[in-house]
Amino acid sequence: MSEFIxxxxxxxxxxxxTDKSKKYGFKIGKKFLGQDKVLIAGPCSIESREMIINxxxxxxxxxxDALRAGAYKPCTFPVRQEINxxxxxxxxxxxxxxxxxxxxSGLQTVTEIMDAQMLSNExxxxxxxxxxxxxxxQNYTLLxxxxxxxxxxxxxxxxxxxxxxxxxxxxxxxxxxxxxxxICLRGVVGGPSYRHIFPSTRWMxxxxxxxxxxxxxNIPIIYDPSHATGLxxxxxxxSKAALAIGADGLIVEVxxxxxxxxxxxxxxxxxxxxxxxxxxx
Length: 281
Ligand code: PEP
Ligand code: MN
Known about the structure:
Blueprint: H1 3-10, E1 27-28, E2 31-32, E3 38-42, H2 49-62, E4 66-68, H3 91-105, E5 108-113, H4 121-124, E6 129-132, H5 140-147, E7 153-156, H6 163-175, E8 181-185, H7 209-214, E9 221-223, H8 225-229, H9 232-244, E10 249-253, H10 271-278
Parallel strand pairs: 3-4, 3-10, 4-5, 5-6, 6-7, 7-8, 8-9, 9-10
Antiparallel strand pairs: 1-2
The protein binds phosphoenolpyruvate and manganese (II) ion.
């Protein structure tokens, strides 16, 4: 298939992620990721108890499959001022509200982990699916630890990650025995040639990686059109393209008041755009 990947297999470096006889993926709501196309949606951050409880109940009426929302937000620059309980996320309080939102709406939840030390039962009991953020894509202590737990993982591609590095990161988790994994593509470095026109487009959409990865692995692929585009007007068309090119699902940032989102306001969409995305399924 590829001499490069074949050599990695021959040298025992990629054995599990590239085993096409295996089925990977996990249940999300009533669907099975890898068989059914899933839609995960929610705000970038949990902003208050009221916000996440009310918003998840709205989103569940639309019929999404799981709720995304960050309690811990890795910010590019340190945040020095707390605003209404939010400082690089609402942290423990946010997780508690997320659990309440899940109990109330019936939606499973996806939230980001920062490091292996967070892996306590107290943390794990409050969420359903763990998101490994871009910045932790090659945090091997974390990936090795995630291999040893029984929780589904969404591993986001580092903005620099090559195809073999993506498989290598998955291999770490699989090696520990956790088969409930998925890859999330979310845009890469590359300096979009229109950044001077649309400054919030920080990353290049990495759509071709979907069919490229599928040549070598059965691990389901979720596309994140929000971070990949950085600008709400492009989220709907890139969602359509990602599903058309073979993504197994989308994870989208949706906010009740998109412009005023505490984090990532430029890329947040509202309900009308979410409904449009839903029509592509
Ligand atoms: C996020 O999903 O809000 C996020 C921080 O994503 P990434 O790790 O891809 O930047
Ligand atoms: Mn975000």
